[in-house]
Amino acid sequence: MLNYTIRRLLLAIPTLLFIALVIFLLLELAPGDPMANVPLTVPPEVKEKMRIALGLDQPTHIRFLKWLQQFFWVEPLHMIDALFGTHWGDGMQRIISWQSRSPVMDIVWQRIPQTLWVVGLSYVLGALIAVPVGVISAYRQYSFIDQLGTFISMIGFSVPTFFTGVLMIVIFSVWLGWFPSIYDTTLVVHDWETFVKQLKQMIMPVSVLALYNAAQISRFMRASMLDNLNQDYVRTARAKGLKEKTVVLVHVLRNSMIPVVTVIALGVPQVFGGAIITEQVFKVNGLGQLLITAIQANDLPMVQTLTFIFAILIVVFNLIADILYGVLDPRIRYD
């Protein structure tokens, strides 16, 4: 397993470099000018100086290599400086956002807590709900519980989140007045009252995303459980006199989790990517909302950095899913 992990990590290096190149070239070919948002009253010579300050006068390959150096060397050094109080990154040029003129990674670190509080919690809650619902639905196939779970899953999977989000705002904010319709990102939890406010403003966006995530995972869980319940090893385990609880929750569930692990692991990068639509509906200043505003402002460094971070997360969690295969199924070996 260790040799396999090392090989996959070494293979991930050229993969990520190729992804970074593709992202950079796509953004280069995209229409738009970073100077388009500059007021018309700014003289042309000032605009040219701004273009030089942003590095747009340099060749494409130079800007790409400079961005790689900043992402893989300069930004980690600044992170180490922030954690341990060192000064290794002093004087080095960081990745600067064209829109805010601030370091991109500083803005990303500011937005991550909001994303994890809302999108991360909803994903964990959705997975915790989906697994038992899928197991019960499969074990009691065609029962009322199975039909109810299927009905709710189809609603959560087919109805878009912007519709359910707006519907919840109308019902619980406008009609009932229970929860705020706009997420207050400036709220700091320091006592019980602010904790209650934080909890109230999280309920609706977390519920919308948890329903959507649970609907997908529960369908995979149910299908995998049904496939394993009819296998020979299940009949053998029952014939040996094992308790039904042991057969279902130990043998069947463990084997059924193998394909579901892929769905859950590959869905984790979506947490950091943010739920773009839901964040827009509830005005949550997460990474998804940050990516949208960066695209609208033609902020190429921000868009490129965020997109590449999401690509790294996909590669990493794909590797984690493969490793978990071997943990769940001893028959799988990577030697």
Characteristic key phrases:
335 residues, mainly alpha, MetI-like fold, 2 domains, 12 helices, globular
Beta fraction of the residues?
under 5%
User: CATH superfamily assignment of the largest domain?
Assistant: MetI-like
What order do the helices and strands follow? HHHHHHHHHHHH
What is the CA-CA span between the terminal residues? 7 Å
- Put simply, the count of helices is 12
Low-confidence region ranges: none
What is the top-level CATH class of the largest domain?
Answer: Mainly Alpha
CATH topology of the largest domain: MetI-like fold
Written description of the protein model:
With 335 residues, the chain is an all-alpha fold. It has two domains: 17-84, no CATH class; 105-328, Orthogonal Bundle (MetI-like fold). Helix content is 75%, strand content 0%. The chain contains twelve helices and no strands. α4 runs antiparallel to α5 and α7 (192-229) packs across α9 (244-273). The longest helix has 38 residues, at 192-229. The N and C termini lie close together (7 Å). The model has no long low-confidence stretch (mean pLDDT 82).
Detail the topology: elements first, then pairings:
Elements: H1 2-29, H2 44-53, H3 60-84, H4 104-139, H5 144-158, H6 161-175, H7 192-229, H8 232-239, H9 244-273, H10 276-282, H11 287-296, H12 300-328
